[in-house]
Amino acid sequence: MSRWKPDARGRLEKAALELYNHKGFDATTVAEIATHAGVTERTFYRHFADKREVLFPADNPLTDILGNATATAPDPLPPLEMIAHALTEATPVFEERADLIRQRQTVIAANPELQERELAKLAALASTLTQALRERGLQTTTAALAAEIGIAAFKVAFERWVNDPDRHPLAQHIRQTLDTARHLLSAPEASAGTDDTGPAGQESAA
Q: Which of 45, 110, 146, 154 is 20 to 30 A from 17 in CA distance terms?
């Protein structure tokens, strides 16, 4: 196989995820990933600093998308509506790579160290949203709470989307999960003792 075929990065990512799921993340080497992708190890290191960066790319556009979408959300919107707008704007990043992302999450779920890194990534996204809300004039506490609630809701929505056998859109899961968060904040007595279901028998915001 020629080492100069186009989209080497994409083939490396696909090869790495296949091997991580087949052999395990720790047992997979960079040399094996390169061979599986039909490129050299040098080519691998031109695209990724190490095998963890396949899962956590340094050039992930999500931070910029969330920050920009929060900054440009229509006025006037409550803080959580700004967060919902930003998260919804980011969904194409996930939808267009759904199969690879589901493979990625299987790898992360099997490795505690990778789970910690995933949580750190989510914390960084919450910081991005907090800063964007503060730049829109919100007080620090309000901005931080809205961002943390939004990211917590996104984490739940993302997990539901990844495991949804009916493949409902991520944006739908985000809306439902944020609606649930709003109900918990505004009327906790209404949710006590209930277990409504949404798509695929999952918890619903209804």
A: 154
What CATH superfamily classification does 8-54 receive? Answer: Homeodomain-like (1.10.10.60)
Give the whole-angstrom CA distance, residue 121 versus residue 105.
14
Residues 6+ apart with CB under 8 A from 54: 12, 13, 16, 17, 33, 48
CATH of 62-187, one of 1.10.357.10, 1.10.760.10, 1.10.3210.10, 3.40.50.2000: 1.10.357.10
pTM of the model: 0.83
